[in-house]
Structures are given as C-alpha cells and as structure tokens.
Amino acid sequence: MKNKKIWIAAAVILLAAAVGIGVAVGMKWNPYPEKEKSIEKVDNSAEDWTGKKETYSGEKNTDTIDIPGFDAMNLKAGVTGQSVNLFNPEQNNCYFKVSILLSDGTVLWESDLLEPGKAVYEININQALEAGEYENAVLKYQCFAMDAEQTPLNGSEVKLTLNVIE
Fold this sequence. Notes:
Blueprint: H1 2-28, E1 72-76, E2 81-87, E3 94-101, E4 107-110, E5 119-124, E6 132-145, E7 152-165
Parallel strand pairs: 1-7
Antiparallel strand pairs: 2-5, 3-4, 3-6, 6-7
C-alpha cells in the first residue's frame, strides 16, 4: 500500500512538471509573432463624397439586353387600375413585351412593344386581386429585334412577390 502511494505521488509530481514545462515552452514559442505596426498615411487626394459618379465601363456591347430586375411589386387590392414602373432601358437595341403572371400562369397584364427608353406607369390588370402576398409571380420579358420582322430574341422571366395592399 505504501508503494502504491509513492507511485501515485511520483506520477502527480511528474505530471505537474510536464505541465509546467509545457506552459514555459508555450510562452516562449508563438506561431503568430506580432508584426511591426506601421502608421498608415491618409490619402490627401481623396475628395468629399458627393454621390455616385459615372465610371468607364467599356464600350456598350450591342449584343446584350439589359433586363430590369424586381424582388417585389406593390399593387392595390380590389381594383384593376394599377401604378407600376415598367420600362425598357434606353441602351437596349430591341423592343420589350412585358407581362405580369401569377405563379399558376394566369396572365394579369401584357404590354404592347416598348421601345428602348420608354416606360409604362399606369396599367389595367385583367382581374382585381385580394390583399395578400402572391409569391412566385413572374415578370416576363419577351425581346424582339427592331427590324421589319421583329425577330424574337432572348428574354427573361423574373420571379417576384406581388404585394397586394389595401
């Protein structure tokens, strides 16, 4: 029994010594040495911010079509007359035909051809909607060349939420 107590005491002393040595080594060895701190300069050529300014973005690629995106559109409940902001960006070289559809494919409204730089602000939808959120509605853009044949081009279907409010 006495030998067992001696062995336990020796093990505790060795363990304490190992921990002490580990702590001492750890304090001396640091894998993330402090970097020399440098004083950064203030940019004296910077100007007061007055809003976003135009920057050069290269020549316009006339082979692309800019499609406006929306996360949501607000409509008034119970009426067919609606105020919207649907447009064909002026830099496009094509006509737009814009449609608003419910998630089940019901067409609420469809425009005639919109020229680049033109917008529609007042529309009459095909049916009055009850107040609520209509998720996964679609704002569909059909694009057509500005030639005699009005050749169909690539289009887009943008999913959005129709917020129909009182």
